C-alpha cells in the first residue's frame, strides 16, 4: 500500500498549463507537493514524439504522468514508457468532460464503463512497479446517486488501483464547456467523504473548488489528500507555505538542498531566470515559454500589473531573462501604486 503522505497535497494536471516549465516553477515553491503533467493521450505517445511529451527536469520529482486513453494494451504500453522515463506514478484521466476527449472515448465518459476502466488499470498495473491511480468525477450529467461513484471505485479498486483523486462535481457531457464544468455542477464534498468511510483501505483525495489553506486543512481532516488546480496556478506564492504548513518541513536542511528552494519571490524569480537562460542555451527555448507560468507570482503586491506587462512583452524576446527581470522591477517600482505608497 503506497503512503498517503505522497498525495497529501498536489497540483492538478491542467491542459496547456502544467508543462515541464510550469512544474519546475512550482517545484521552486514547494519541495513536497506532488506535480502532475498535462494529460498525454496514448495516441500522442504511440504515434508522436515521445521525447517531446515525456521529457522533464530531474528537479521536478515527485512528478506523475497523466494518461488519456481507453485501450488497455495502449495504456499498458504508455505506462511502461512513463516508468522508463522516470515518472513516479501513472494517473488515468476519467474526469475530463470535453467533447474532444469524449470523441476519443476516454475522460469522464469512462465512468459509465467501470469494468473497462478496471481492465485498463489492470493492464497498467501488470507492467509497471509504480502506483497506477485514477482521477475521476463523482457522477455523470445530472445523476446524483452516490451508488454510481461508489460502484465505480469498488470495481476499479479490485483491479489494483489504490489511489483515487475525486473531483467533487459531476461531469456534464453535453451542454457545458470544460470551463463551465469546473464551475456549474455543484460541489458535493460529502460524497468524497463517504467514499473514504466506505473504503478506508484506499487513499482518497479531493479536487475541486478548494482555494484557502483553511479549506485544505478541513479536507485533510476527512481525507488523505487535496489536489489544487487553478488557484495554485493563478496564485502560485501560496505554494511557498505548503511545506511548513502541511508537510511539517520548515526548510531546515543542508545548504546544498536549499539552493533549489529560495525563500523570497525575488529569489524565485531569479532562479527562474537562471532556468530560462539554461533552457535557451541548451534547447533554444524562448524565455516566454517558461515566464508565462510565473505571471501570478507578485499577485497582491504593488506594481504587480506593470511587472506582468514587462514579462509578457514579446518585443523583449531577444533580451536575456535577467535583463527582463531588471526591467520588470524598474516598471513595478515606478507604478502609481508604489509611488503613492512612498509619498505617504
From TrEMBL:
Its cofactor is FMN. Keywords: Flavoprotein, FMN, NADP, Oxidoreductase, RNA-binding, tRNA processing, tRNA-binding. It catalyses: 5,6-dihydrouridine(20) in tRNA + NADP(+) = uridine(20) in tRNA + NADPH + H(+); 5,6-dihydrouridine(20a) in tRNA + NAD(+) = uridine(20a) in tRNA + NADH + H(+); 5,6-dihydrouridine(20) in tRNA + NAD(+) = uridine(20) in tRNA + NADH + H(+); 5,6-dihydrouridine(20a) in tRNA + NADP(+) = uridine(20a) in tRNA + NADPH + H(+). Its EC number is 1.3.1.91. The record marks 93, 179, 182, 305, 308 as: Interacts with tRNA. The keyword rRNA-binding does not apply. Residues 11-318 form the DUS-like FMN-binding domain. GO terms for molecular function: tRNA-dihydrouridine20 synthase activity. It is an enzyme of class 1 (oxidoreductase). FMN binds at residues 13-15, 66, 135, 167, 207-209, 229-230. The keyword Coiled coil does not apply. The active site is at 96 (proton donor). InterPro entries: Aldolase_TIM, DUS-like_FMN-bd, DUS_fam, DusA, tRNA_hU_synthase_CS. Belongs to the dus family. Catalyzes the synthesis of 5,6-dihydrouridine (D), a modified base found in the D-loop of most tRNAs, via the reduction of the C5-C6 double bond in target uridines. Specifically modifies U20 and U20a in tRNAs. NCBIfam families: PRK11815.1, yjbN. This is tRNA-dihydrouridine(20/20a) synthase. It comes from Polaromonas jejuensis. The gene is dusA.
Amino acid at each position: 500500500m503506497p503512503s498517503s503522505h505522497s498525495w497529501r497535497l498536489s497540483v492538478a494536471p491542467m491542459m496547456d498549463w502544467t508543462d515541464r516549465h510550469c512544474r519546475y516553477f512550482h517545484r521552486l515553491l514547494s519541495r513536497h507537493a506532488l506535480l502532475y503533467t498535462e494529460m498525454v493521450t496514448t495516441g500522442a505517445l504511440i504515434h508522436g514524439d515521445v521525447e517531446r511529451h515525456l521529457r522533464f527536469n530531474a528537479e521536478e520529482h515527485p512528478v506523475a504522468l497523466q494518461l488519456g486513453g481507453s485501450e488497455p494494451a495502449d495504456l499498458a504500453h504508455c505506462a511502461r514508457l512513463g516508468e522508463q522515463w522516470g515518472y513516479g506514478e501513472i494517473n488515468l484521466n476519467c474526469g475530463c468532460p470535453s467533447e474532444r476527449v469524449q470523441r476519443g472515448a476516454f475522460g469522464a465518459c469512462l465512468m459509465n464503463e467501470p469494468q473497462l476502466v478496471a481492465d485498463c488499470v489492470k493492464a497498467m498495473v501488470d507492467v509497471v512497479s509504480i502506483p497506477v491511480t485514477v482521477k475521476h468525477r463523482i457522477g455523470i450529467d445530472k445523476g446524483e446517486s452516490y451508488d454510481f461513484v461508489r460502484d465505480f471505485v469498488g470495481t476499479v479498486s479490485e483491479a489494483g488501483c489504490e489511489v483515487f483523486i475525486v473531483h467533487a462535481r459531476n461531469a456534464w457531457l453535453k451542454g457545458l464547456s470544460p470551463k463551465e464544468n469546473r464551475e456549474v455542477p455543484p460541489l458535493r464534498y460529502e460524497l468524497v467523504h463517504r467514499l473514504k468511510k466506505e473504503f478506508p483501505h484506499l487513499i482518497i483525495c479531493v479536487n475541486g473548488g478548494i482555494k484557502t489553506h483553511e479549506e485544505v486543512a478541513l479536507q485533510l481532516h476527512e481525507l488523505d489528500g487535496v489536489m489544487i488546480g487553478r488557484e495554485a496556478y493563478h496564485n502560485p506564492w501560496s505554494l511557498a507555505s505548503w511545506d511548513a504548513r502541511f508537510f511539517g518541513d520548515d526548510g531546515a536542511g543542508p545548504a546544498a538542498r536549499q539552493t533549489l528552494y529560495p525563500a523570497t519571490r525575488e529569489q524565485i524569480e531569479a532562479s527562474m531566470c537562471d532556468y530560462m537562460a539554461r533552457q535557451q542555451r541548451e534547447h533554444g527555448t524562448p524565455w516566454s515559454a517558461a515566464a508565462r507560468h510565473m505571471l501570478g507570482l507578485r499577485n497582491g503586491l504593488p506594481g504587480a500589473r506593470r511587472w506582468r506587462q514587462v514579462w509578457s512583452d514579446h518585443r523583449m524576446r531577444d533580451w536575456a531573462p535577467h535583463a527582463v527581470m531588471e526591467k520588470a522591477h524598474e516598471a513595478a517600482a515606478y507604478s502609481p501604486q508604489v509611488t503613492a505608497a512612498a509619498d505617504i
